[in-house]
Amino acid sequence: MRLFDLPALLAVVLLAAAGCGGPTYCAFEGKVSVNGQPVPTGLIVFSPAAPSATQREAVAEIADGRYALPLAKKVAPGDYKVAITGERKTGKKFETDPGSGVFADEREQFVPEKYNARSELTATLAPDMPPLDFDLAIPKRKP
Fold first, then answer.
1. Which residues does residue 125 pair with via DSSP β-bridges, in sequence order?
2. Average pLDDT for residues 104-110, to the nearest whole number?
3. Is residue 82 part of a domain?
4. Is residue 109 helix, strand or coil?
């Protein structure tokens, strides 16, 4: 007695595999600048715009004005709120441990809250999307 019909079993396996494509994720990159100048270092955070079973927060580091979120981060397509922070050197140094003689560059967070803590930036993410760039407008400081 034969338990399996090989062609029928193969057809079932192929149909099952075709239906098991799994979830679709987005991989994308972009640039972040302030008044046209690259953000030296910082973070960009994509948070689901509404509660979702498939979407979760995704965070990428900004370095020299660039960020990337690869497929490995498993960012699901959809609408997201975007928050951006950026740091720059102040030109001052500080001693890392008092009396150590070791100094480091002082940095300041210079991106206003309207782009992070109270951000109204949004993005709709999709698979195979083009680069997603953000050029933030910040009024120049008066001397």
1. 78
2. 92
3. yes
4. strand
Q: Tell me what pLDDT residue 52 has.
A: 87
Q: How many domains does the chain have?
A: 1
Instruction: Mention every residue, 6+ apart, whose C-beta is less than 8 A from residue 70.
Output: 27
pTM for the whole structure: 0.78
**Tell me, what CATH number does 42's domain have?**
2.60.40
Integer-rounded Cα radius of gyration of the chain: 23
For the chain, what is the mean pLDDT?
A: 86
DSSP category for residue 129: P
Give me the domain span that covers residue 129: 25-136
C-alpha–C-alpha distance, residues 5 and 15, integer Å: 16
Q: What is the largest CA-CA distance in the chain?
A: 92
Residue at 33 is within a domain:
yes
User: 3-class DSSP state for residue 33?
Assistant: strand
